[in-house]
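Lay summary. Proteins are chains of building blocks that fold into shapes, and those shapes determine what they do. In this project we predict the shape from the chain. Here is one chain we studied, written as its sequence of building blocks.
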Amino acid sequence: MNCRGCGAQLKLPLIDLGTSPPSNAYLRAEQLTQAEQWVPLKVDVCESCWLVQTNDYTSADSLFDADYAYFSSYSSSWLSHAERYVGQMVERFGLDQNSRVVEIAANDGYLLQYVKARGIACLGVEPTHSTAQAARAKGVEIREVFFGRDTAAALRDEGWSADLMAANNVLAHVPDINDFLGGFATLLKPTGVATFEFPHLLALMAGNQFDTLYHEHYSYLSLTAVNTLCERNGLHVFDVSELPTHGGSLRVFVQRQDGVQTRTPAVAQMLDKELGAGVKTRAFYTTLAPAAERIKFQLLDFLLKAKADGKRVVGYGAAAKGNTLLNYAGVKSDLIAWVADANPHKQGKFLPGSRIPVVSPEQLVAEKPDYVLVLPWNLLKEVSEQLAPVRAWGGRFVIAVPELIVL
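And here is the predicted shape, written in a compact code that computers can read:
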């Protein structure tokens, strides 16, 4: 396979997680009699531009289909993050009723609802029908298409040249990353800015976050790689900041190459930090595979011991990262009875691969399990606060990444 960023041949492996179904391909009951599509989950590193990427085995239109089940608005902490973001961007860039904001991967309107509330014209681009419909129900205008240069040109011709473009947790999801970034250079006004938020490769490696690797994530990003990609596609990085979201993320600010913003010292500082960590060395990428294997064995040891002791273990959060973990470890419903999730679009379905049933959180109170494995470990604080009654009956929370901890 060649690098989807620069075209160089990929020769440096990061990790091989075996085979699994796409992590968001939740099953309906009638599908349990059918075979699933299991495909290799391998990740490689480009030693030319240092873009880390999943091998090509599945197409984007099959991963992000009409039944796509990830809805951003079911996380209260993420909604708060989105509302803060809108306030910060309005203040920093002087957005007002004469401005235009376009969000790429607008999902269910979780962010643009706050732009709309300020009376600022906004448009969302969202290819998945299920989430697009939810956004429209909030009064957000949505175009149900994938984004790239052609889409950007069409929107520009309609008068949607943007003062601000937001792209949260989508840059990793696009197979043709050059076409995607080229669309921003097309749609931004000469004075416009765009922000990308994505999990930071440094955090992934430091935290052994192998479970964030799945087919829907085509790329795993450092500022080093993103800066090169932006330069190749008519964009200029002028600022960057670190965020606690998703286990450690970056927010990268970009403009057209003829833009007016001055580059801040934070860009050089982050590039230097990544260089010092070793992102341009082969040795940097050797630690994740053994860490994943260790975590797998820790989880299996815990689950088997709990089973032998007659303890009941359930999961919370039917997250894509949880599906990577469970399928890599070979966990089924004999070890984790069910997974509770607040998203009604997932309830009544079954996790891909493991086929563990997804239920509503009310079942936690009804059955009072001994342990609750929080699969979206990045939301542990939020989940443990929401599920405080678990402690009342002596239940304990568990996370498996970056190592198994029973709280």
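What the prediction tells us: The mean pLDDT is 94.
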